[in-house]
Every structure is written in C-alpha cells, then in structure tokens.
Amino acid sequence: MNINIADLKQSFELLIMGWGGVFFVLFLIYLASKVLAKLFPPKK
Which residues cross the membrane (predicted)? Predict the structure, then answer.
C-alpha cells in the first residue's frame, strides 16, 4: 500500500478546515441565540 504524503497532508488540511467551519457556524448560531434572548427576553 502506497501512501502519498502530499495527498495525506492536503486531506488533513481539508478535514481541519471542514471541522473548523462546522464549529464556527455553531458558534455563530449560539451568539445569535444569545443576542435574540437579550433583545426579546422570555415573558414570565
């Protein structure tokens, strides 16, 4: 089995960018929910 190191490096870069994007979007959704909760507090 031949492993091309350059291809392996590129695939890890894509993996890191992909997961980084996922967590970035989740963080943006979290911040948006916090802002909306401050702007429109739940009625008691």
Answer: 12-32
Radius of gyration of the chain (CA): 19
Distance separating alpha carbons of residues 15 and 5, to the nearest angstrom: 15
Specify the 3-state DSSP secondary structure of 15.
helix
pTM of the model as a whole: 0.72
Token pair of 7, please?
Answer: 């291809």
What pLDDT does 40 receive?
Answer: 94
CA 13 to chain centre: 14
Amino acid, res. 42:
P
Amino acid, single-letter form, for residue 38? K
